[in-house]
Amino acid sequence: MKKPNKTILAVLVLGVLGGLLLALGAEQLDHYTNTQEFCTSCHLTGTYIAQSETFKTSAHETTSFGVRPKCSDCHIPKGLVAATYVHIFKGMKDMWGELTINYDDPKVWEAERPRLAYAVRDWLRANDSVTCRSCHDQNAIKPKKKRGQRMHKEARETGMTCIDCHYNLVHEEVEPRDSFLDSAGKQQ
User: Fold this and answer.
1) Which tens digit of pLDDT belongs to each residue from 102-116?
2) Could you tell me if 122 and 188 are in contact, meaning their C-beta atoms sit under 8 angstroms apart?
3) Which contacts (CB < 8 Å, 24+ apart) does range 119-124 have?
4) pLDDT digits over 64-84, tens only?
5) With a threshold of 0.70, does the pTM exceed it?
6) Residue 167: enclosing H or E segment and its boundaries?
7) Smallest Cα–Cα separation from 48: which of 60, 38, 56, 58?
């Protein structure tokens, strides 16, 4: 019987170890880039959003269940591959905006808020509100009011997604575009 080539064996072992280290490093990087501290180190969420009365009194921030979603829970999909993709491609676009738009000026921030809200709403709709669904099971939601029960039933029947109705939950209100409202239930 022929002995295995030591060089091939060494390359295989090093490849497996290298892949394992790369995966562990990527997992740690993903964990770090999903923290509030990381998000607010670049984005002005600490200045304009996290300190706003709307955020502080929102259902996500004041729930009696003790659940406090982070920025990434709503804005970054779960899973290493999906999260990495969004961090790289959406993150590069966000970074460019931070470098080229003077968000430090409150007037500029207010002028940009609708555009940013529309972009997030469009992304959520195109992805069937994936980040909402990572915490909320639509079939387990039982609204107390008849209107909410009727609307959730209709949403399940027509294929509407969370963002079609719940578009001003945490952030300061931005009116939706008519085209957004007219296309509810028709994911892009």
Assistant:
1) 888 889 988 998 999
2) yes
3) 120/75, 121/163, 121/167, 121/176, 121/180, 122/180, 122/188, 123/90, 124/161, 124/162, 124/163
4) 777 788 888 888 888 888 888
5) yes
6) none
7) 56
